[in-house]
Write a structure and sequence with these properties.
Layout: H1 3-29, H2 35-46, H3 54-65, H4 71-83, H5 98-131, H6 144-151, H7 155-169, H8 189-225, H9 229-236, H10 241-253, H11 255-265, H12 273-278, H13 284-293, H14 297-325
Helix pairs in contact: 1-4, 1-14, 2-3, 5-8, 5-11, 5-14, 6-8, 7-8, 8-10, 11-14, 13-14
Length: 333
């Protein structure tokens, strides 16, 4: 692989990050809303009376958050802060810093989604390969219809069904949260089991909704590989069934699946927002939803920027490692 190609791809990635960061900065400001004033109005209404000197308080907070400066100065200051992963303070939860709030929520989302995505990819890809293999057991075909039906249901709707059945009807699993209320997070086996117990339902909703999609894509690729010359030649050589399935058919059919997995893993930061809301899970998706609801510019910008960077990095790494996955792909002229 030539170094100029690597540099070109890295440069293209940085360009995408800059464009996305610019859109991320200007888009919330097109609404014309004043997040400081709205936040203070909500607080004063909760107190039962309007606070005196609201305009003076708003101006003080705007100076604190840098919103009193011209837009172009805010933009250049924003780019400098973004380069240092500094997204200022949260407007709705001052004096918490945005980067600290994201880092607190990130392990919950990354742990939940990475396990759910990898399990759905592994099981779905294997099932899809067996669905498309002509000498696979026939009883596996009975699973294809139900899996496709589940893949047509959005995560959050499937989550609501699972929530009603397992949490409210059978009372086997907790209805929401990341751990038992009233407990403090500690590095102990008991707390880890509690977290895993609360993550079963949201992870299961994602797992069941994704299995059919992975299986359908892999089945289509397996059917395509059946007519390839290398498959006919390998079969004529009398290779074993296992070798034909794993080293010839599945190895060549899995490449598009790897592309899809890289793009899906790039969404780990943003999280399955609606799933986290349904289960009240303390992840990045819930953090983003609350920030949008409260017009918290800086939190929205931080979460969206991290999501863009993650997806861009996943795509960049995929481009660079594709020749290692498939020797037929080369970026040499």
């Amino acid at each position: 692989m030539r170094l100029n190609y690597v540099f070109r791809r890295v440069g293209f990635f940085l360009l995408i990050v800059w464009v996305a960061a610019s859109v991320n900065f200007f888009l919330p400001r097109l609404s014309g809303q004043d997040p400081i004033r709205e936040k203070l109005l909500r607080e004063s209404m909760l107190g039962g009376a309007m606070q005196a000197g609201m305009d003076q308080i708003v101006k003080t907070y705007e100076v604190k958050f840098g919103l009193d400066r011209p837009l172009y100065q805010q933009y250049f200051s924003y780019l400098g802060d973004v380069a240092r992963f500094d997204f200022n303070y949260s407007i709705s939860q001052y004096p918490n810093r945005v980067i600290d709030m994201i880092l607190d929520a990130l392990p919950w989302t990354a742990g939940l989604l990475s396990v759910a995505f990898l399990l759905s990819f592994s099981v779905g890809t294997l099932l899809g390969a067996l669905f498309g293999w002509p000498r696979a057991p026939r009883y596996l075909g009975w699973l294809f219809g139900p899996l496709l039906s589940l893949s047509a249901i959005p995560y959050f709707l499937l989550g609501l069904v699972l929530l009603y059945f397992f949490a409210f009807y059978l009372k086997w699993l907790p209805s929401g949260g990341g751990f038992e209320r009233g407990t403090l997070p500690t590095a102990s086996v008991k707390f880890a089991l509690d977290v895993a117990h609360h993550a079963i339902l949201p992870a299961l909703s994602i797992l069941l909704a994704q299995l059919g999609g992975w299986a359908l894509g892999m089945r289509a690729m397996m059917v395509t590989t059946q007519g390839e010359d290398y498959m006919v030649f390998a079969d004529a050589k009398g290779l074993s069934e296992r070798t034909l399935f794993l080293r010839y058919a599945m190895r060549n059919a899995i490449l598009p699946q790897v592309t899809g997995l890289a793009l899906v893993l790039g969404q780990l930061i943003s999280g399955a927002v609606l799933v986290e809301i349904v289960f009240q899970y303390p992840g990045v998706g819930t953090l983003l939803w609350r920030a949008i609801r409260e017009t918290d510019y800086f939190v929205v910008q931080g979460v969206v920027f991290f999501s863009i960077v993650t997806i861009g990095l996943a795509t960049l790494l995929l481009d660079l490692i594709y020749p290692l996955l498939d020797p037929r792909i080369s970026y040499e002229k």
